[in-house]
Amino acid sequence: MPKSIRYEMAYDAPVETVAAMLADPTFREDVCRFQGVTQVEATVEVAGDTKKVKVDQMQPTAGVPSFAKKIVGDETNIVQEESWSSLTHADITVTIPGKPGDMSGTVTLAPTDAGGTLEAVDLTIKVKIPLVAGKLESLIGDLLLKALKAEYKVGRDYLAR
Prior knowledge:
The protein has about 160 residues and is α+β, with helices and mostly antiparallel strands. About 35% of the residues lie in helices and about 40% in strands. It has a single domain, classed as START domain (Alpha-D-Glucose-1,6-Bisphosphate, Chain A, domain 4), CATH 3.30.530.20. α2 packs across α4.
C-alpha cells in the first residue's frame, strides 16, 4: 500500500518571496549541498506565469539499511520535477531512474494571517517490489521528511539574508 506524507513549512515572508526562492537554482543547489549530495544540477524554466523546476542529484546511501542498499547501491540518482501552474501550486514527481518506484503529489503556498507563507508538500510514495515495498516506502518517507526538514532550514536561512 502506498505511503502518504505531508510536511508544512511556515516562512516569515510573503508568498511572492517564497515562490521566488523556490525558483532560484542556487537555493535548490544549496539545499542539496546541505544534505551532502555529491552532484547536483538545478534548472528552472519560466514561461509566463508557469515554471518548471528540475533538481537532478546524486545522493550517497550511507546509513541506508542493507536490504535497501542492495536495490539502490552506494549512490543513487534522484530527479525531482515540479510543474508550477501558478504562483501557489505545483505538481511534483520524484523518481529514481531505473528503480521501481516514484513519489508524486503537490506543493502549495498559502499566505498566513501574520503576512508569512505556509508551504505544504503532500506526496504519495509507491514502490513496486513485492515483499519489501512497505519497508522501502517507509524508509523513503523517512528520508524524504529529513530532506524537507533540511530544505526548511536552508529556506529560513536564505530568507533571513
